[in-house]
Amino acid sequence: MAIVVKRPKLKWYEQxxxxxxxxxxxxxxxxxxxxxxxxxxxxxxxxxxxxxxNLPEYYRGAPALxxxxxxxxxxxxxxxxxFICPPRAITIxxxxxxxxxxxxxxxxxxxxxxINMIRCIYCGxxxxxxxxxxxxxxxxxxxxxxxxxxxxxxxxxxYEIGGVREGLVNKWNKLK
Amino acid sequence: MDWYxxxxxxIKIVVFVFLVTLPLVAMSVWAERRVSAxxxxxxxxxxxxxxxxxxxxxxxxxxxxxxxxTPNHVRKSFYWLAPALTMIPSLLTCAVIPxxxxxxxxxxxxxxLDVGPLFVFAVASLTVYGIVLAGWASNSKYPFLGxxxxxxxxxxxxxxxxxxxxxxxMIYGELNLGRIVMEQAQNGWALLPLxxxxxxxxxxxxxxxxxxxxxVFTTSMFAETNRLPFDLPxxxxxxxxxxxxxxxxxxxxxxxxxxxxxxxxxxxxxxxLFFGGWSLPFGWLTPESLDAEVxxxxxxxxxxxFFGKVILFxxxxxxxxxxxxxxxxxxxxxxxxxxFFELALANxxxxxxxxMWLK
Lengths: 176, 359
Hints:
heterodimer, A: alpha+beta, Alpha-Beta Plaits, 2 domains, three-stranded antiparallel sheet, 5 strands, elongated, B: mainly alpha, two-stranded antiparallel ribbon, 2 strands
C-alpha cells in the first residue's frame, strides 16, 4: 500500500522563506567563521605535514630485503615470495654461493631480486610467507618515479630501504 | 577638447572594465571556491601563490591551452557566437555604474547616462540570446533543455527585476545613477536612512517599500544570474551542465566569466541603488554636490568603498549559494509570476500612496 507522506502545515512566517534563509545562513556562516578562526580542524596539509611519526608498527609500505647482524643477506632465494605474490611483482634469479664464501653453507642467494612497484599491491604476503624473515614491508609509502624502469626496485635498492634487522622477529604476533 | 573626453573615457574603460572588473571576476571565482570550502569545513585551492590567490591565473592558462573542440553536430556560426553574446552584455553594463565620486575632476563613471538602470536592464537582458543560441546551436538535448529553462526563467524574473526598482525611482525622481548615489550620500542610504533628511518619519516610512523592493530585486538578481537557489539552467543532477554542456576550453570559460561578470554587475547595481554606491555612511567625506571639487584622496576612498561594498555583496551571493537548496521548476515559476510580480506591483502602489500622503 502506498504511504501518503504528511506534509507539515507551514505557518505564515515559515512560508515567507526568509527566516529559513537566515537560519541556513547562520549555520553556513558559523562553519565559515569557525574555519577562519581555526576552531574547526581540517585535513592535514599533506606535503608540508606528514603523518610518518604516527604510522603504526604493522604499517604495510614498500617491501624491502633485510640483512642480519653479520651483514649476511637473509634471503636464500627460495622463491616462495615470488610464487605467492598475487600481482607477480617479484622476480628472483637465484645463484649458488661460491664455496670460498664465508656463508657457503647457506648454498643459495638471489642473483637479482626485482620488485615491480607498479604491480605491488602492498598485501604483505611475501613477508608472511618468507621462512627466513628476509623480506619486510617497511613504512615507505611515497614510491614515485618518472619512468617504468625507475619503479622497479632492484636488489641494491631493496637493501637500501630494508637496512639491518637484528635477531628473530615474531611475525605472527597479535598485531600481524 | 574632444580628444580629452575620448582619452578620459578610454582610460576609464580600460581601468574599470579590464583592470578591475575582469580581475574581480577571476577573484570571485577564487573566493567562491575558498568560501564554499570554508563553509564545508574544507581548505579549498591554496597551492598557487599566497593563499591560492593565483589560482585564477592557473585556471585561465589551463582554459587557454585546452583543446577547443567543436562537435560535428553543431551550428558553427551560432555555436561560436553564443559565448561572446553572454560575456559582452555583462561587461557593457559596467558603463553606467558609478564606481567612485571624482578623480582629477573627472566623474568616475564611464557613461553618465540619464537612463542608467534602464540601460542596465536593456543590455543585461541580451544575455538571454547568448544562452538561447548556445542551447539551440549545440543541437543536443541537455543544452537545449537548459537553455529553454534559462530563457523562461530570465524572461519571468526580468519583469519583477524591472518593477522592483520603480519605487526607488519614484522616491528619488531620478534615473541617473550618479545623482541617485549623491542623494543617498547626503540623505541616508535607501535601506539605512540614518542621517540627513532621511532621519525622519518620512524617511523611515519610505524605507519599508524600499526594503520590499530590495528583497525582490536581490532575489530576481539571483534568478537573472542563474545562481544557486535558481540555477535550474545548469543543475548538474538533471542537465549535466545545462546550456554549456557541449562547450570546452575558452568558450566554456567565456560562459563562466560572463556569469560571474553578471553577478558582479548585479552586485554593483544593488550597491548603487540600495547601499549608497561609493558613499561612506553618515555623510562622511561627502562632497557638497555632484559638481563640487573632490580632493584626490577622498576620490580614492570612494572608489575603495564602492568595491568593498561590492565584494561584501558578492560574498553574500556566494554564502547564499552554498546555503540554499535548488528550487523546483514549478516553484520557481510560481515564485516569479505569482509572488514577486504581484509584490513588486503592490509595492509600486504602496510607494505612490505613501508619497502622496507624505507630500
